[in-house]
């Protein structure tokens, strides 16, 4: 009988992994979504939606559904779920793997300032005397910057927020990545950007702005990822996750 595998999802990587695993006979894949979006895409295999109710709820779920392995593929900026998964898997003895795309790292020529909160990022905009700022953050984060009088903002979002937050001086731009290097160069030049504010998402879709910034000596205020529990084995892609599952199947799945 196929062994049950729980994917903590909500990311492209989780959907891709479910696609690949659903085709294999060894695993019955259940993808869990937090339920933040109204009509979420369902993953290949089974999908469940909604929080578990903390560590205790997750322990109960793992037991009741006879889950044999957990893959935490939540977003790098999802701050809590990974901790709950680590604790629940420690309690139950169920193997846990974290799949996370690698963070970007600064290279020679980069002018990055690392911050650990949006409050700190807003303070850094003020203190650095930035004049023309590309704000590449989510709509929920805009409130941290709306009171800054000393800078003009170019605010790039996927779709317009309603209502528009009342920035003192701002231009709104709506676009969905991936963004090409030539376009990012043109964007920084056209708008004479001197500072970018963004979070360390990693991956290639939105990395070109960092390369364009390095070429131009543009400052980058970069929100670092939240802390993760120590001791959880972590891989960077689906290939490595499949290899981990294969090894697990070889040593047996019975608890
Ligand atoms: N934060 C981001 O920037 C971001 C970006 C893209 C996608 N997402 C996705 O959106 C979801 C929620 O993000 P978040 O930042 O609120 O996460 P979070 O801070 O790590 O989690 C908060 C709570 O939401 C529930 N939860 C989170 N992920 C879940 C999942 N996959 N299945 C079931 N319950 C889940 C858990 O509730 P209980 O304690 O009740 O179990 C958890 O304690 C995550 O699945 C994440 O992958 C987040």
From TrEMBL:
InterPro entries: Precorrin-6x_reduct. It holds the Pfam family CbiJ. GO terms for molecular function: precorrin-6A reductase activity. Pathway: Cofactor biosynthesis; adenosylcobalamin biosynthesis. The keyword Lipoprotein does not apply. One of its GO terms (biological process) is cobalamin biosynthetic process. Keywords: Cobalamin biosynthesis, Oxidoreductase. The keyword Oxidoreductase applies. This is Precorrin-6A/cobalt-precorrin-6A reductase.
């Amino acid at each position: 009988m196929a062994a049950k595998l729980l994917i903590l999802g909500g990311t492209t990587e989780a959907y891709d992994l479910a696609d690949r695993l659903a085709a294999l006979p060894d695993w019955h894949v259940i993808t869990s979504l937090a339920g933040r979006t109204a009509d979420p895409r369902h993953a290949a295999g089974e999908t469940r939606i909604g929080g578990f109710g903390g560590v205790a709820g997750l322990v109960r779920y793992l037991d009741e559904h006879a889950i044999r392995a957990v893959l935490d593929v939540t977003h790098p900026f999802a701050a809590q779920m990974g901790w709950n998964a680590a604790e629940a898997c420690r309690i139950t003895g169920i193997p846990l793997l974290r799949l996370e795309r690698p963070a970007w790292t600064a290279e020679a020529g980069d002018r990055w300032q690392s911050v650990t909160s949006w409050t700190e990022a807003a303070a850094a905009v003020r203190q650095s005397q930035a004049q023309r700022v590309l704000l590449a953050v989510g709509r929920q984060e805009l409130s941290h910057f709306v009171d800054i009088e000393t800078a003009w903002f170019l605010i790039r979002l996927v779709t317009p927020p309603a209502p528009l937050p009342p920035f003192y001086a701002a231009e709104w731009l709506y676009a969905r990545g991936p963004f090409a290097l030539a376009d990012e160069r043109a964007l920084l030049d056209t708008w004479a950007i001197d500072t970018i504010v963004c979070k360390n998402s990693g991956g290639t879709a939105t990395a070109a702005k960092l390369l364009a910034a390095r070429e131009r000596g543009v400052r980058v205020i970069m929100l670092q990822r939240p802390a993760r529990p120590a001791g959880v084995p972590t891989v960077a892609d689906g290939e490595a996750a499949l290899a981990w599952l294969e090894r697990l199947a070889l040593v047996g799945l019975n608890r």
